[in-house]
Predict the structure.
Amino acid sequence: MAPETWPDRPGLTSSSRGSRATESLQDRVRQSAGEIIATADADSTYPVKDIPGLVKMLEEERLDFITTDRFALMEKGAMSSRNQFGNSILSFTMRALFNINMKDSQSGMWVFRKSILDDMILKSDWRPSRRS
């Protein structure tokens, strides 16, 4: 299924899950004109209204990548209890294994500099990892 695009919002794309969605997202990011990219899953669990502030933080603090925490401000019912529990287990495991203070390891809302893509290996599930 081809991604749906909105002519009044350049670069805004919606596509189904799976490898085609991943390829579509990767293509859109690489083809974007901007130097700063913001992504968010379209499931109403992300504070997309905060993107301008996150972009400002990225620039002012000279960061390359910001990931968000859905749980701090998430509206009740936006995510099932089962998914919240599973996410807490995955996030705890990541903190324990890698000593990273991350509350939402499965977040799909990121703000990052497009230039970091050259240093990453993008997996089929769009979870980035740094090149060695």
Observations:
- Residues 1-18 have pLDDT under 50 and may be disordered.
- The first strand starts at residue 4 and ends at 5.
